[in-house]
TrEMBL record:
Single biological process term from Gene Ontology: ubiquinone biosynthetic process
Pathway membership: Cofactor biosynthesis; ubiquinone biosynthesis
Function: Required for efficient ubiquinone (coenzyme Q) biosynthesis. UbiK is probably an accessory factor of Ubi enzymes and facilitates ubiquinone biosynthesis by acting as an assembly factor, a targeting factor, or both.
Naturally occurring in which organism (per UniProt): Mannheimia varigena USDA-ARS-USMARC-1296
Gene Ontology, cellular component aspect: cytosol
Family per record: Belongs to the UbiK family.
Subcellular localization(s) per the UniProt record: Cytoplasm
The protein's name in its UniProt record: Ubiquinone biosynthesis accessory factor UbiK
Keyword Cytoplasm: yes
A Pfam family it matches: BMFP
Keyword tags: Cytoplasm, Ubiquinone biosynthesis
Keyword Ribosomal protein part of the UniProt annotation: no
Length: 82
């Protein structure tokens, strides 16, 4: 996942590729690069790691409940056949 630190690293890499004359304008360009990258990343359909972990836990609990219900249903079906 891209974090603010990663965005800064990418912006720095972009800055480093500029010719020396343009590097003097560096701070303004760094900020513009960050703004552009953040705007583009905001348009992507992604979630944070925290959101992903929360949803994974919800899914795990749901799977456990489903397994329990399937087991109870099987037991009830066996009892009904008896």
């Amino acid at each position: 996942m891209l974090t603010p630190k990663n965005l800064e690293a990418i912006a720095q890499q972009l800055h480093n590729t500029l010719p020396q004359g343009l590097k003097n304008v560096g701070n303004d360009l760094d900020e513009k690069f960050k703004q552009i990258l953040q705007a583009q990343l905001a348009r992507l359909d992604v979630v944070t790691r925290e959101e992903f972990d929360v949803q994974s836990q919800v899914l795990l609990r749901t799977r456990e409940k489903l397994n329990e219900l399937e087991k109870r249903l099987d037991e009830l079906a066996k009892d009904a056949q008896s």
